[in-house]
Write a structure and sequence with these properties.
Blueprint lengths: L24 H4 L5 H8 L5 E5 L5 H14 L8 E5 L2 H13 L6 E4 H16 L6 E2 L4 H10 L6 H16 L7 H8 L7 H18 L1 E2 L1 H14 L1 H10 L2 E4 L7 H11 L5 E5 L14 H4 L1 H4 L4 E5 L1 E2 L4 H12 L4 H4 L5 E2 L8 E7 H17 L7 E5 L5 H10 L4 E4 L8 H16 L12 H9 L14 H22 L5 H16 L6 E5 L8 E6 L15 H15 L2 E12 L28 E2 L6 E2 L6 E2 L18 H6 L11 H18 L9 H10 L4 H5 L6 H15 L12
Helix pairs in contact: 2-3, 5-10, 6-9, 10-11, 10-12, 15-23, 17-18, 19-22, 20-21, 25-26
């Protein structure tokens, strides 16, 4: 696992080995491709580098700084290189030293602003800089208490994140509710309540003379705006600026950068709008996309030679972006691989999630046996709650692993609390009224975990509350799978199983396969990458509603694909658990890219160019008349039920499961009122077809097999109301 581009074409520039610096300025340019050389020699005026994944952007900008220093055009102390993580800043400093350009400042926005605040605060304000609040959660909790608003631990974390977002977007407490509505954010609480907590939080900070991380930027902006003498002093110190990952700057960071620059244009920015995946933190690619507008004289260089990934991986990455929409998509970069051909990406469909995890673990074991180091393999998923089944599968397969950016599943606070509650219920369940009328093991688990925050429906939006629910839901699923394998199991048996799993996964592991969320994988790369759980509802995630949110999910998958150098595997499961209904379907983002799928807007099913799959239909052209063909794999349908669904029984479904269950409940009520069997209202297949089509009009509903004119007149209004998510005012059985 590395952060730097790893290729024979890119000699290693960091590490323990001491490398002699280039002999002169011209030698700094050795080994750069034509576009990288153009970046390195463009030392005057504004410069915008649009750099695709794996194109060596860090190499280009560090060589640019080193070339300027070695040629005597730039003074080391006059250059400020800004990036977004301490790791990236440290890597940049190391590369610059090896290129003979020591003395250049490479820092994050926050560390650069904090140094300036510490130096200028006595002159600008007087006295010492207020104490920096390392953890704001406790003060947010107190603020909520002062406002008489009760927050649990997860809500507290989410509200804290909302306050951070408000500050980096320069939103004051009074404007927070309107800003949330405008940005289509899913606030963890009533926005008015969060606005109250935010206002109290700011008041308590003032009373106690403390500042938080975001205040560092806000105060730096305030001083530079008000004190022109200090701004001039900083501008005399720093004459040249380089900003990496420019697609991730927030409005507040851009404001600080503008103040550092003043009326000068000695600025080089580097970024890729197609890798904007942190908008929930306030990041926006608008500054990158508007750079030419703000700086008409800018030199723009595109880096599109991909030194990281094989042509097969790059082909799939380009295909993902070719289907993208929106402003960022208009500026996408078509990458060109510089590597030798490698294996085709593998698309694999599994019957259920445990089978997907076990299949992934087997393939990883095979790769390791073939000589791929475990540390050069990664399993990437959308949310951290997905890790448990892969932790277990890898442990069962004897494959060492490490988690990145998340606690191990059984070390999570909510999982430990849930385990304690289940252990208590197993010991004293006979005296627990909660379990009086509950016999079935999964129902017992649901009853116990309902006291810890589990509900039948997930909470809306993302954040800590959603993460907690996902962890508890994973325990519920584990109980369901456990009793399916061992029908006579008791709650005590399940607790023993959980303890065994926890013990096995707490054992120390050596450097191994990386398990990480897609967000945590940004900036890293591996020889082999497994992208798992690629189903609708997870990719894109279910709470991504707007067009822009959907496009950010597509970019997240693009980031995942471009982490792979050689081996790439993409997989999904048709059902959650063994024996479950195969109602899931693979992510829409792979339509037209995976073998046997249909490209968006296409009328025929054709195999995608390149790629292998365990399943996938032949290329079959639909006709207006003739045999009824499966709309997924293209096979001829012969069974009445399949013809009603317009797909094979075992082909992936795009059915809205929640809608299907609401329709079933409604049908049961109707059947009871009519004193008829449920199938006389609608058959299961017809309800499934309705839940897949989600009709919005009588015409669309009438086009579904099994909905004749009589049933349309009798039940149509109710069905359309349920499909629209409306509550039925009444049910007389004759609507």
């Amino acid at each position: 696992m590395t952060a730097a581009t790893h290729s024979p074409l890119f000699p290693q520039e960091s590490g323990s080995q001491i490398v002699a610096p280039p002999r002169d300025a011209d030698a700094v340019l050795d080994g750069l491709d034509p576009e990288q050389r153009e970046v390195a020699t463009a030392l005057h005026g504004p410069v915008c580098v649009l750099a695709g994944a794996g194109t060596g952007k860090t190499r280009a900008i560090t060589h640019r700084i080193a070339y300027g220093v070695r040629a005597g055009i730039l003074q080391p102390a006059s250059v400020l290189a800004v990036t977004f993580t301490n790791r990236a800043a440290g890597e940049m400093r190391g590369r610059l030293r090896q290129l003979g350009a020591g003395g250049v400042q490479a820092r994050t926005f926050h560390s650069a602003a904090l140094r300036q605040l510490q130096f200028f605060w006595p002159k600008a304000v007087g006295g010492e800089l207020p104490r920096l609040l390392e953890r704001k959660v406790q003060l947010v909790a107190e603020s909520a208490s002062r406002c008489r608003i009760k927050l649990d631990r997860n809500e507290l974390r989410d509200v804290t994140s909302e306050i951070e977002w408000a500050k980096v977007t320069q939103t004051v407490p009074a404007d927070y509710p309107a800003a949330v509505a405008k940005s289509h954010r899913d606030a963890p609480r009533d926005p008015a309540e969060i606005g109250q907590i935010y206002a109290m939080y700011e008041q308590l900070k003032r009373e106690r003379s403390v500042i938080d991380f975001e205040d560092v930027l806000l105060l730096a902006v305030g001083i530079l705006q008000d004190r022109h003498d200090i701004a001039d002093q900083i501008r005399r110190q720093y004459q040249h600026f380089v900003v990496d990952e420019y697609q991730d700057v927030s409005p507040l960071q851009q404001r600080l950068l503008d103040l550092w620059l003043g009326d000068r244009e000695s600025l080089c920015v580097v970024g890729d709008a197609s890798q904007t995946i942190y908008s929930f933190t306030g990041a926006t690619p608008d500054h990158l996309l508007n750079f030419r507008t703000r700086h008409p004289s800018a030199t723009v260089v595109k880096l599109i030679r991909d030194y990281r990934s094989t042509p097969q991986v790059v082909h799939l990455a380009n295909g993902l972006l070719n289907q993208a929409r929106g402003r960022a998509a208009e500026h996408r970069l078509e990458l060109i691989s510089q590597r030798e051909p490698g294996p085709e990406p593998v698309h694999t469909e599994y019957a259920d999630e445990p089978a997907e995890a076990e299949g992934t673990a087997r393939r990883i074991r095979d790769l390791i046996a073939a000589g791929v180091p475990a540390g050069e393999i990664a399993v990437l998923y959308r949310i951290n709650a997905q890790s448990e089944v892969y932790e277990q599968a890898l442990a069962d397969a004897g494959v060492p692993y490490q988690l990145r950016g998340a606690e191990r599943f059984f070390e999570r606070q909510e999982v430990r609390e849930a385990g304690a509650a289940l252990r208590g219920a197993a010991r004293f369940g006979g005296n627990d009224s909660l379990l009086d009328d509950v016999v079935e093991l999964p129902s017992q688990v649901r009853a116990v975990l309902s006291t810890k925050g589990w509900t039948t429906e997930p909470p809306s939006g993302s954040g800590a509350v959603r993460d907690r629910w996902e962890s508890l839901a994973a325990l519920v699923r584990l109980a369901e799978d456990f009793v399916r394998a061992k029908p006579t199991a008791t709650l005590a048996d399940l607790v023993a199983e959980l303890d065994e799993r926890a013990a096995a996964q707490h054992a120390p592991t050596v450097q191994g396969v990386t398990l990480a969320s897609l967000h945590a994988a940004k900036g890293l790369e591996w020889d082999a990458v497994f992208l798992v759980g690629l189903t609708e509802g997870m990719m894109p995630i279910t709470y991504a509603k707007t067009d822009e949110q959907i496009e950010e999910e597509r970019r997240l998958l693009y980031v995942g694909v471009t982490r792979a150098r050689l081996h790439l595997s993409l997989s999904w499961a048709l059902s959650r658990s063994p024996g479950g209904r195969a109602s899931r379907r693979p992510t829409r983002f792979l339509n037209g890219l995976r073998p046997g799928s249909t490209a968006p807007g296409a009328r025929s099913v054709a195999a995608a160019e390149g790629g292998t799959a365990e399943r996938g239909g032949a290329a079959v052209k639909r006709k207006r008349r003739g045999p009824v063909l499966c709309r997924v794999c293209g096979k001829t349908l012969t069974e009445a039920g399949e013809m009603k669904l317009m797909r094979c029984e075992d082909c992936p479904s795009d059915m809205d499961e929640a809608l299907y269950e609401r329709l079933r409940d409604w049908r049961a009520d109707q059947a009871q009122q009519l004193s008829q069997p449920a199938y006389c209202v609608f058959t299961d297949k017809t309800l499934m077809a309705i839940a897949e089509a989600v009709p919005g009009s009588e015409g669309e509903l009438a086009g579904i097999a099994g909905v004749g004119s009589r049933k349309l007149g009798r039940f149509g209004a109710d069905v359309l109301a349920i499909c629209a998510g409306e509550e039925l005012a009444g049910d007389d059985g004759d609507s």
